[in-house]
Structure formats: structure tokens, C-alpha cells
Amino acid sequence: MRITVALALVALLVSCQNDEREPPTSEFSVFEVPAHFPDPVYDFDGNPITEEGFNLGRKLFYDKRLSRGSQVSCGSCHAQVHAFADHAVPLSVGVDGREGKRNSPGLYNLAWTEAFMWDGGINHIEVMPIAPITDSAEMDIALADLLDYLQNETEYPQEFGEAFGSTEISTSNLLKALAQFQGAIVSDGSRYDQYIKGLYIPTEAQLRGMALFEANCSGCHGGVLQTDFSYRNNGLDADFTDLGRGRVTQNSADNGKFRVPSLRNVALTNPYMHDGRFFTLEQVLDHYSEGIVESGTLDPALTNGIPLTENEKEDIIEFLYTLSDFELLGDLRFSEPAK
Amino acid sequence: MVDATIAHFSYSHQQIRKMTIKTIKLAAMAITIAFLSSCSDDDDKTDSNPAPEAKGNMFIKFQHVWGPAQADFNLNTALVHPGSGEELQFTKLRYYISNIQLQNANGDTWIEEESYHIVDAENMAGEEVQLNLSDVSSGSYTGISYMIGVDSLRNVSGVQEGALDPAENMFWSWNTGYIFIKAEGQSNASPNGSFTYHLGGFEEPFAANSSMFHDFQGATLEISPNDNPSVHLIVNPARFWHGGFSTEQTPMVHMPGEMASDLASNFAGSFVFDHIHN
């Protein structure tokens, strides 16, 4: 096998010396579909992950030069120590101290995500970064200006050339590099995953919490990713200052609805809800148990709330802790590269 | 599946060694073939394609006019709307033309590949903006079809290139999809003194892309290697404010919805075939 590869490499080297530079074809396996996960939504066949492309995406993700005045990077509000959510703040701060409108979610398992943002307005992982890059409260730079800027930096043209075969930096290659990096971030190293694989025995409280979760929460937070990817009004407000899904669909029946998030790493990604109003898991469970607010689009499943005793809440929280993937927090493949 | 696995486990070391040698031989053959094919000279290509289909060049010319009188239309020029009397001027008019096809009398169709173009009134020469289509199959064509806007597929398939590059600023970042038509300018009647129409949306019931077909009304477009014929279409931006629309009532549309769909459909209704120039 090794001989075959070596021969192939030699053949490649000698056969095409005069050809123009071609994109790398080396095998680089940073993305693997966990056996207990569904099929991913994003098809990397159209954007094959290479070591060069992935590392370029990783560098771009952590590079403040992607914002006006080199103020913030993607990683500023998506920190690995918080499972790529923000540093426990309700709303994130972009250029010039401008505050955004919604809570920054953790970034993992994006290859399984059909629609992005709290309102699902963005339909593809490749075009997702355009929103934070161009938003005036986030990175606030026009794509054309960013491309110009990167083109004139010393190292980027060469690195794009190594990744995509062209030193001319295009929107397409910029976004494909970011998709290679962000799409490859898989969170499957939690105790819950180990339990599924038969490698972890939960505590009594965790098992009780799991059963309560199945009975009370899995109607929306079902499956191995704990989400049905729907949009629902979970009873936060009687009136909506943020229309959520309704702003995207222009359908008033969707007003006040937001994406049901995956609960993976939920204990690492506080605060909670689209506006980060709840700081603790206790507050979240209190809300579902006693705090549901009536409104026209309230999810029918929550009309009477989800009454839970204090002990039951504690058990559910014990279970939610098992969804934390501490391997992800220290995975050097995804960490900020050395300068 | 199971049988294969069992069979695999029953291989002896010798068999596996034979197989490895076989694999290397196969790989060597494959590499040799790859070697030969990857470094072939360019003139091989013409040999393998001895009778290339004759191709030609053509233009589609979009002539912008104003109102039923077909008065002059220019950016940054004072206009009076013939219906409402509103005084306005355009600072921007850009729109996508995509999925261009030509029909000939036999019912055959020539389909442009990667058929995505932006018509930008900034690029008007005289009254016209022209799109250049190359590698059109030679023949006599009797009609043209195209879309004003972008098909739904390209709105949901991730990052695109060329005219569909999001850096063209005809793209919504927060609600994925192309802005099919951008019309901006000033108006005395508008509450904020301006009008801003960013029209798009590829989903029913408010899809804002329009499929168009024009019969050449007895004329034929003759495509051949040495000619540069053109199809002349007339576009009338005054038509945005048709069916009760005005800048006073509707100064701004910048997301998909009923308003965007209606305004886009008004604009599409202004596209008419004028003549062929062979």
C-alpha cells in the first residue's frame, strides 16, 4: 500500500512538471462522520478538505484582519474554550464596541446543520460567514474590500494558491476555506457519546435525568444532536421585539419563533436563548417549568409548561452535563494557530 | 457483505502477498496510463475532435426607455412618472439575466452554460446595455427565453462564482438569496426622499424571478462564425410603478415577500422584443 502511494507521488511529480499548479489532492482526514450520527447535510465532495484548505480556513477564522480596522476575528466571539460560543456574554461585541442583536451560538457539527442563525435565514454553510463579515455590528467589511485587503497581504495569495491552485483570492475560495475549517469541527466526544458506544456508565442521577429528558424535552430536542431543526416559540415573551423566524418567512404565524438548538455542549455555552437572557441551566428549566408566557404563536406543547420538581430539574441538569465535549475544547486541530 | 468478510479472513499470507503484488502491478499500470494522458500535447485535442461544431458570437441589447412615450432613460437624470407624476431619478438599476436559451424553427434549443449575467445601467452605451454571448451554436433561431433573476437552485447551493459572486452585492447575507433586481434613486414624493427596491425571493408564493420568452415574430437570428448579430429588447423601468405602486406608498422594499414579487413582476412585464439585427 505504501509502495503504491509512493509510486503515485513520484508519478505525479515527474509527469506534470510543466503544468500549471493544481490544487492539492492529498488525503487529509480531519472530518469523519461518527457512527452514531445521521448523514451530514454538507457534502464535502464539492469542497474536498485538504490540509492546505483546512489550515487556511483555520487561519482566516482566527484572523482579525477579516474585520474593519483589524478589530475582531470569528474566534473573538466563537471561542474554543466555550465550544466556539462567546465568552458567557448575552450579546456579542463587534467592531467599535457595537453590540449585536442575538447570542452567538457554539460552532460544531455544522456539517449537519441545514439552516444557520437563530432564525434559519442562511441556507448553506458556505455562505454563512458573509453575514458576520459584512454586518455593521460584527466585522463590518464589504466582501470586495476584504478580498482586496487579503490579496495585498504578504502571505495570503500564496496560501490560497497552495489550497486552491490560484493566487487570486476569490469570494468562493475564501468561503470554501472557512467551510473546510468550520465544517470539520465535529463534537462527538462527550460522555453521552461514550455512553452510546458503551464506554461510559452514567450515574444514577444522570440516568434519571436522561429518562426525564426523553419524556419531557425530546419532542423538540430529540435525536443524537438533540434538535429536530424546527423553529418554535418557547414562551419567552408576550410581544416580540425580535420577530425571529417571522422576519425571514414574512409569515406572522412564525413571529417569535427561533431555531431549536442542539443541546450538545449546552453547559459550556451559556447564556441561553436567542438573546442570552438566561445565564444558568437552572433558569432555563425554571422557565420551562414555571415561566412560560402566553402568546399567539406559543408552541402547543408548551401551553401548560413542563412542570418539574426541583429534584427533577437537578437530575435533568446532571444529564445535560454529560453532553459536554471536553475533547473539543482542547483539540489542537481547531485551536488558534501560532503566529 | 457477510460472505465477503468471511472470505477475506480466510486468505492465507501467500494469497495476500500475491494480491499485494497484483495491486502494485495494477497501480503501476494505472500510473503509466495517467502519465501518458496527463502530459499529452494540446494538439491531441483537435485530433480527437475532428469536426468541431460551428460557433458564433451574439449580443443581447437591453434598451432602457421611460414610459409609454419611450422617452430617454438615464441614471442620475430627472424623470417624471407618466402615471403618478412623481418626480424621480435613478441612481442605480441592476438586474440578473440568467438561463438564456435560443429556440430554432425545428424546435431545437441552444442552452448557454453557466448562464448568469448582470445588466447594469451604469454600463449603458447610448440607451443600451449589451450582453455578449460567445460559443453560440450556428443556426437560425426564432425565439429566446431567459429568466429575470436567478433560478432557485443557485440560491440554495452555497457560494457561487462569476456574476453570482456575492461580492457583486446582489446577495442577501442574512436571508440567503440573490437580489434579482436593484433599483435605487431619489423621489420628491417619497416620505424619505428616496426609493430603494431590492427585489428577490425564490420561494413560492412570493417568488420574484420571472421566466421570459420572446418569439422573434417571423425574423430569424442567424448565428455563424463570422457575424455578430443581436437581439434587441426594450426595458421600461417606469413600469415598476404600475398597478397602484408609487414611491410615496412604497419607498423601500428590501426583502422577499409579496411586495418584492409584485414589483419584480411589474418590471418583467416591461420587457418586450423589438427587433433582430443580423
Verbal overview:
Chain A has 339 residues and is mainly alpha-helical. Chain A has two domains: 16-187, Cytochrome Bc1 Complex, Chain D, domain 2; 191-323, Cytochrome c-like domain (Cytochrome Bc1 Complex, Chain D, domain 2, Orthogonal Bundle). Helices cover 34% and strands 1% of the residues of chain A. In chain A, α2 (51-61) packs antiparallel against α6 (156-164). The two termini of chain A are 36 Å apart. Mean pLDDT of chain A is 93; it is low at 1-20. Chain B has helices spanning 2-9, 13-38, 43-48, 152-155, 258-268; strands at 55-66, 71-72, 79-80, 87-104, 109-111, 116-120, 128-137, 139-148, 171-172, 177-187, 194-200, 210-215, 221-223, 230-235, 252-253, 272-277. In chain B, the strands form two sheets. In chain B, strands 3, 4, 5, 6, 8, 9, 10, 11, 12, 13 and 15 form an eleven-stranded mixed β-sheet that branches. In chain B, strands 1, 2, 7, 14 and 16 form a five-stranded mixed β-sheet that branches. Chain B has five helices and 16 strands.
Give the key terms.
heterodimer, A: 339 residues, mainly alpha, Cytochrome Bc1 Complex, Chain D, domain 2, 2 domains, two-stranded antiparallel sheet, 13 helices, disordered N terminus, B: 278 residues, alpha+beta, 11-stranded mixed sheet, 5-stranded mixed sheet, globular
Summarize the structure.
Chain A is mainly alpha-helical.
List SSEs of chain B in N-to-C order. Answer: HHHEEEEEEEEHEEEEEEEHE
Shape of chain A: globular
Largest interface, counted with CB-CB under 8 A? A-B, 39 and 32 residues
Q: Count every helix of chain B, treating DSSP H or I runs of 4 or more residues as helices.
A: 5
Rounded average pLDDT of chain A: 93
Q: What do we call the CATH topology of the largest domain in chain A?
A: Cytochrome Bc1 Complex, Chain D, domain 2
Principal-axis shape of chain B: globular
Summing up helix and strand content along with how strands pair, one would put the structural category of chain B as alpha+beta
Q: Which CATH architecture of the largest domain in chain A?
A: Orthogonal Bundle
How widely separated are the two ends of chain B? 64 Å
Count of discrete domains of chain B: 2
How large, in whole angstroms, is the Cα Rg of chain A?
22 Å
Radius of gyration of chain B: 27 Å
- Strand residue content of chain A: under 5%
The quaternary organization reads as heterodimer
**Number of beta-strand segments of chain B:** 16
Largest sheet, spatial ordering of strands of chain A: 1-2
Main beta sheet of chain A, described? 2 strands, antiparallel
The number of domains of chain A is 2
Number of discrete helical segments of chain A:
13
